[in-house]
Design goal:
Layout: H1 11-21, E1 26-31, H2 33-38, E2 48-55, H3 57-67, H4 72-77, E3 80-83, E4 98-100, E5 108-112, H5 115-121, H6 128-140, H7 145-156, H8 163-178
Parallel strand pairs: 1-5, 2-3
Antiparallel strand pairs: 1-2, 4-5
Length: about 180
């Protein structure tokens, strides 16, 4: 295990404690600021790991019990797991997951959405922080705007409650990222 594969503190200690609480393999599909900061290097604070999938269910129950906001590990490390149940995620995101910190933990596998899927997961909320994260990813990765638009059109748009509104947001994002 090289030090390059270790997350910085307090994340390392928090994730190590999560790993030690598990008796068998568990996968966390992560989105949000944790991924943008830890995998892509954005320098901004974040206090949680946004997770859209925890598998298997037994591991999910164990982890959420100790690591949710207000839980034992949150009180100890001041960071927590946040199970995101509302975010719209591109349809085939699982095919594009990347493992974060491979080989670092015995049972825990942290999987990150790819930068296009992370960007699109932020579309509906469209906060200033979300736009800043997407702008950062666009410059750093860099994002191909045609790929972003295509993935929106084929894998996300059909899921949205108000697609016309998100079409406008997507148009504005493409303009923003083109500058």
């Amino acid at each position: 295990m090289s030090s390059e594969s270790l997350p910085p503190e307090p994340w390392h200690s928090f994730l190590r404690d999560l790993d030690e609480a598990l008796q068998s393999p568990a996968r966390l599909d992560c989105i949000g600021g944790f991924v943008v900061t830890q995998l892509y290097g954005l320098d901004r604070p974040t206090a949680d790991v946004d997770v859209i999938e925890l598998a298997p269910r037994e591991a999910s129950e164990t982890l959420m019990k100790i690591a949710m906001q207000g839980g034992t590990l949150h009180r100890k490390h001041r960071i927590y797991l946040d199970r995101v149940g509302v975010a719209a995620i591109p349809e085939n995101y699982e095919e594009r997951l990347t493992e974060m910190f491979p080989g670092t933990f015995r049972h825990l596998r942290l999987m990150a959405l790819d930068p296009y899927d992370i960007s699109l997961s932020k579309l509906e909320r469209n906060s200033q922080k979300d736009r800043d994260d997407v702008r950062y990813l666009s410059r750093t990765v860099p994002l191909d705007l045609a790929t972003l638009q295509q993935r929106y059109d084929t894998e996300l748009r059909w899921q949205l409650g108000r697609p016309e509104r998100e079409d406008l947001t997507m148009k504005l994002w493409i303009e923003m990222l083109s500058e």
